Amino acid sequence: MTEQSGAAENDTNGEEPQTKREKRKCTPDEVVRSLQARIVKAQEAGKHNKVKALQYLLTRSQSARILAVERVTENDGSKTPGVDKET
Q: Mean pLDDT of residues grouped by 10 in the chain (87 residues)?
């Protein structure tokens, strides 16, 4: 009986209690910004191989792809006239 009441206090929706790492979800912006900051620090420290590894991570990360797609699809320039002067 006490086991169930203790579980009810920790768990309101019937799932396992989350760890601190699972509670805080990073946005794609935060992930990319963090990787970029790590690249700068590694470059300043002269760690060329670390820079290459982080660049590899950044270029292949799902977060970077999400931001790239957002940047292209939300581009207001798509509404301006192009070469043919039509919208």
A: 52 62 79 95 96 96 93 76 72
Long-range interactions of 29-36: CB distance < 8 A, separation 24+:
29/63, 29/67, 31/61, 31/63, 32/58, 32/61, 32/63, 32/64, 32/67, 35/61, 35/64
pTM across the whole model: 0.61
Rounded-to-integer distance, Cα 85 and Cα 75, Å = 18
Structure tokens at 75: 């581009």
One-letter identity of residue 6: G
